[in-house]
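Predict the structure of 2-dehydro-3-deoxy-6-phosphogalactonate aldolase.
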Amino acid sequence: MKETRKFALETALRERPLVAILRGITPEEIDGVFDALVAAGFKLIEIPLNSPRAWDSIAAISKRCPADVVVGAGTVLDPADAERLATLDAPLLITPNSDPEVIRAGVAHGLAPMIGCMTPTEALAAAKAGATALKLFPAARLGTTYFKDIRAILPKGLPVLAVGGIEQSNMAEWHAHGVAGFGFGSNLYKPGRPAAEVGEIARALVAEWQRLREVAQQAEAFEREADA
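Done. Here is the predicted structure for 2-dehydro-3-deoxy-6-phosphogalactonate aldolase.
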């Protein structure tokens, strides 16, 4: 991974860990939707490989991707796809499952594996294989209580993003239970949705994230003052 992309990824995961999942997007749509997302403040863009001509879409946006934005592929199931992503300077490698072979291939090619998991066994296996972040999926069906129960055994410092059924209305609940960020699918983009509408939704999601982050920072500052 190029140093500029590495810095952009680290910054995004720390400050704005919101992933736009563009499942079903076509190369004809990608430019307009990508521009709308970037203008709204999204820094992490995923093109699932089961989308029509997904590699064409990834190639198109990777060529003109701003320095502070990171793109890549989702629904990655084949370790061989890691090399192709590295060639395209598209370092996000996102999976729906925890496959050590895919993770190790991603690490070997300097990518950032964001690995789907549902159970503690899957999460710990992904961490051991070198995952950059974990993707709790399907989050809404599992619920915040489930995440609270397993959070204690997850590796400290490894970001966990909630994906699946996440929308503006439930971000606060998940954030309060300690998730590091979110992935947004059909609530943000679905095939045929105009780029302007995607941009409007994206702006609302970014604004909600900023609000939650500011509330958390204020609470931390209050605790520090109370302990002083």
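The domain at 3-227 is CATH 3.20.20.70 (TIM Barrel).
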